[in-house]
Design brief:
This protein is α+β, with helices and mostly antiparallel strands and about 425 residues long. The chain is built from 18 helices and 12 strands. About 50% of the residues lie in helices and about 15% in strands.
């Protein structure tokens, strides 16, 4: 029993520095909470656990959670609660086994999502963004739950995951869903969707392993399909048609705020969420950048061309914390431009154009101008790009020049028309 082992007061530093034994499990027992400790497996995985005797006086261990996903004090509290239950005749290991056997994939998805919404599930070391969670919820509700929701979590095999992936590829989860009085969502399958669903399912099972529910991830080793879908981008003629459409869209009833947002997306290559949440204070004319406070990759100085900066300067109010693209009603900023984009594209006779299309088109123009993938990644703010990392605080002359050339060429292709920005004064008066 733990009582016979040498005890130390566990700290995060002690746990972090503890080394595994390649031949056997290593146990560190806590001096503060009797029968609570840390197990270090030969693989290096560290987990909190308790040791106790069940009702038949048999020695047993119960894993509380992984050390890399749970704070020490939270583990101590849960250990105390579990040990108090043991003293009252409960068996936490048996209870967890029963839960594991009865819990379905659907239940696990719900638990995962609830903790993600509470900021307890991380992506790149930070809680998942609301926009990411919205996408996750769609993949869970429209693909994972319909095909796997009723299956027990410990019964899911790699073969099951592969069959699930093939079903999504084949379109078995396709649906036309009514989302409101005027809204509809078209759910499609395909290789890209299937691969992303498997990635999410793997993350959910990794979460279950960290919680101590399971030991194995059935998604591990599953070969995901390549998404061969060609990304749409605008050619010079299409840019011209888009520019002309933006100039007349307001007369067709399209919001001037949305029109300006679409033009900003085209001139900057930024993500839709980054543009729509812009404030005047984030426009750094001298630094040749947008100082984004909360991009997908965190705080970032995004290089922006002079053409784009001049246009956004027209949109900014004297109040620096005011939104560049305010909501049509109420407070806050505009959240979406899907409907205005559809109307603008109808005017321009363009198909399959989204905010992401404009971002990809920006990258394509940069490629046409001869810039390397590394530089293009810096212009787009890719988190894994070493150029981006160097420009978190400043933008050097080379990258600023690249942004200038790209935005200038896009502006030329779209055409110069004062009508797009002519009502800015009225908008912000």
């Amino acid at each position: 029993m733990a009582a016979k082992s040498r005890k130390i007061r566990l700290t995060q530093a002690i746990i972090k520095s503890a080394k595994p034994n390649p031949e056997k499990d290593v146990f560190l027992w806590d001096a503060d909470v009797t029968r609570f400790g840390v197990r270090i497996k030969p693989s290096g995985v560290k987990s909190y656990l308790i040791q106790y005797r069940d009702q038949r006086r048999r020695e047993d261990k119960h894993t509380i959670g992984r050390c890399d996903s749970m704070k020490l004090e939270d583990a101590r509290k849960e250990a105390r609660d579990n040990l108090a239950g043991v003293d009252k005749g409960r068996d936490p290991a048996a209870e967890r086994k029963s839960l594991r056997e009865s819990q379905t994939v659907g239940h696990l998805c719900d638990q995962y999502f609830a903790e993600a919404e509470a900021g307890k599930v991380f992506s790149r070391g930070k809680p998942k963004k609301a926009s990411t969670l919205g996408i996750d919820r769609g993949r869970i509700d429209r693909h994972i739950k319909p095909l796997l929701g009723n299956k027990a979590i410990d019964e899911l095999s790699r073969r099951d995951v592969e069959e699930f992936m093939n079903d999504v590829i084949d379109g078995k989860t396709e649906a036309d869903i009514v989302t409101g009085p005027r809204g509809r969502a078209r759910v499609t399958g395909g290789p890209g969707t299937a691969g992303k669903c498997v990635t999410l399912l793997s993350a959910i099972y990794t979460y279950a392993i960290r919680k101590g529910y399971l030991e194995q991830n059935p998604c591990r080793g599953v070969e995901k399909p390549a998404d061969n879908k060609r990304e749409r981008f605008l050619n010079p003629d299409e840019y011209k048609r888009l520019g002309a459409a933006l100039s007349i869209a307001q007369a067709e009833g399209v919001s001037v705020v949305a029109i300006n947002a679409i033009k900003t997306l085209a001139l900057t290559g930024c993500r839709k969420s980054e543009v729509l949440s812009l404030k005047g204070a984030e426009i750094d004319v001298v630094g040749h950048a947008l100082r984004l406070r909360d991009s997908k990759s965190g705080a970032q100085a995004r290089p922006v061309g002079r053409t784009a900066l001049d246009f956004m300067g027209e949109l900014a109010r004297e109040e620096k914390e005011a939104w560049l693209f305010p909501a049509d009603r109420g407070e806050g900023h505009r959240k979406d431009i899907t409907k205005p984009m559809v109307k603008v594209c109808a005017i321009a006779d363009l198909e399959n154009i989204t905010a992401h299309t404009l971002r990809h088109s920006f990258a394509t123009v940069a490629h046409e101008l001869g810039y390397s993938e590394l530089t293009i990644g810096g212009l787009l703010g890719h988190s894994s790009n070493s150029v981006t990392a160097r420009y978190v605080h400043h933008v050097d002359a080379a990258l600023a020049q690249a942004a200038d050339r790209v935005s200038t060429l896009i502006g030329e292709r779209m055409g110069t028309d004062e009508k797009v920005g002519s009502n800015i004064t009225k908008l912000h008066a």
